[in-house]
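Appendix C: a fully annotated inverse folding record. The material below is reproduced so that readers can follow the format used throughout the book. The structure is listed first as tokens, followed by the designed sequence.
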């Protein structure tokens, strides 16, 4: 049995990323009900809001689901308490040191997976005792690695460095790219952008429509002096580019980012002044569909491509 499917008790080794302002209980439960692992994104939630989403998700699915926790969250202790009190069984941690909270979560019987973007932090996560890691390449949306290592290069390096299961992320939105990740050593894939445009995603309709109309080159990695993030180009992203070209420091970038910039864009629909986090795979997306349909298409495509490669192997077997 696939090690991630076994670890997380899911049918398909496909995980929906915990995206801020997109990943509420509706999306998480829909993905879990379809056989993948749905994840509630706690990064955009106050503790009481997260509790409500967990409770609603438990009512909407009897399948495993998880919560993504950015470890730099200001109310991290309260978030951890909510997750433990509500009996969440799976946590995907990110944006911080996994050594701080992994043992606390695992002591409560929680499976812990940590998101990394380089070999150094993959080894630190393994040392901290996580059950698996997500290796996220440069193509991914949202917060990203400063090294700008693509998934094609990152994944085999991480797989060689660690002994725990590895989940590939970044630029994966189809069965073909899923198969490519498996060829490079992945045990599963984590997919964000393709699920951001699902009907059940809590993203604003204007944001979803902007994603599916995106073409190559419409995203850019920005704010590397602050927290690297991949953005769809708009007036805000242009302002960031101008500021960075002028040598803006962390303080200036924080002033420009302000408060609730991501909420304004992704959740409230400000397509010019808001922060629009999405991956390069957005150029391949062209429709808003149910999460179940998205997941099943990816899995069917994966199996079809695998059969084609097996046939090709026979043809090339000298």
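Designed amino acids, in order:
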């Amino acid at each position: 049995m696939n090690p991630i499917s076994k670890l997380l008790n899911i049918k398909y080794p496909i995980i929906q990323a915990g995206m801020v302002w997109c990943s509420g209980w509706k999306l998480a439960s829909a993905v879990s009900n379809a056989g993948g692992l749905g994840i509630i994104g706690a990064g955009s939630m106050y503790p009481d809001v997260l509790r409500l989403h967990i409770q609603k998700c438990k009512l909407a699915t009897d399948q495993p689901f998880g919560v993504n926790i950015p470890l730099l969250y200001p109310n991290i202790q309260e978030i951890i308490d909510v997750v433990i009190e509500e009996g969440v069984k799976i946590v995907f941690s990110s944006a911080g040191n996994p050594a701080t909270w992994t043992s606390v979560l695992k002591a409560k019987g929680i499976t812990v997976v940590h998101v990394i973007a380089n070999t150094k932090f993959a080894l630190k996560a393994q040392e901290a005792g996580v059950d698996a890691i997500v290796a996220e390449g440069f193509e991914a949306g949202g917060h990203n690695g400063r090294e700008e290592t693509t998934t094609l290069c990152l994944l085999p390096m991480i797989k060689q460095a660690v002994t725990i299961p590895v989940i590939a992320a970044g630029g994966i939105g189809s069965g073909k790219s899923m198969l490519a990740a498996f060829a490079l050593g992945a045990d599963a894939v984590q997919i964000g952008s393709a699920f951001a445009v699902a009907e059940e995603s809590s993203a604003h309709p204007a944001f979803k429509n902007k994603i599916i109309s995106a073409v190559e080159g419409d995203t850019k990695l920005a704010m590397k002096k602050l927290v690297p993030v991949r953005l769809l180009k708009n007036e805000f992203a242009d302002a960031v580019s101008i500021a960075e070209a002028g040598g803006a420091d962390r303080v200036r970038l924080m002033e420009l980012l302000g408060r609730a910039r991501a909420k304004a864009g992704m959740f409230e629909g400000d397509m010019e002044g808001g922060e629009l986090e999405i991956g390069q795979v957005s150029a391949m997306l062209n429709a808003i569909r149910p999460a179940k349909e998205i997941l099943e298409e990816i899995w069917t495509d994966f199996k079809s491509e695998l059969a084609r490669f097996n046939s090709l192997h026979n043809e090339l077997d000298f």
